[in-house]
Amino acid sequence: MTTRLLVCLTVLSTISGWRSKNINGEYWKSFDIFKTCKHGRKQSPVNIIKNDASIMQCAPMNFSYYDHPNDFDILNNGHTVILTLKKRNLTYSAYYGRTTTQSYEGSLTIPPCQEIVLWTVFKKRCPVSAGQMRTFRKVFNDGDTHMNIFRLPQPLNGRTVLYNRS
């Protein structure tokens, strides 16, 4: 639960500056500083179609120490959420055993849309309860429902989506 909260808080803090009245990021294309959002060739997200993916065999993903607690402070400064770790050596991992994943080279989904991400999408979804969503929405405490704040799928532009059943 702590890990899911940490991941979700990170995502919510990242998107907080790009959500209000900025439907699907279309306005980003008008700013020179965000030119990669408009002209990048490896933008995310993409529409993954399993039948079009290239099959690949990899070893199972092995994450460890995800169940060891770490001390951190969370501060909501009104614009974003700041997570400060109290320890310098932080290791996060989890072991899922045999997994089905799809992956592709892509970008951050918010400005400046840097093309530096290897997206790995797991077939098995992690459920999030209504109570957890209420907690995440309270982080900003601005009355917004934080719904429909996603970027529309971007073209693959010749990229290959890899399908792996390890």
TrEMBL record:
Molecular functions (GO terms): carbonate dehydratase activity; zinc ion binding
Catalytic activity reported: hydrogencarbonate + H(+) = CO2 + H2O
Keyword Chloroplast recorded: no
EC number(s) on file: 4.2.1.1
Ranges for domain Alpha-carbonic anhydrase: 1-165
Gene3D superfamilies: Alpha carbonic anhydrase
SMART domains: Carb_anhydrase
Keywords per UniProt: Lyase, Metal-binding, Zinc
Alphabetical list of InterPro entries matching this protein: CA_dom (IPR001148), CA_dom_sf (IPR036398), Carbonic_anhydrase_a-class (IPR023561)
Family: Belongs to the alpha-carbonic anhydrase family.
Protein name (Swiss-Prot/TrEMBL): carbonic anhydrase
Organism annotation: Lepeophtheirus salmonis (Salmon louse)
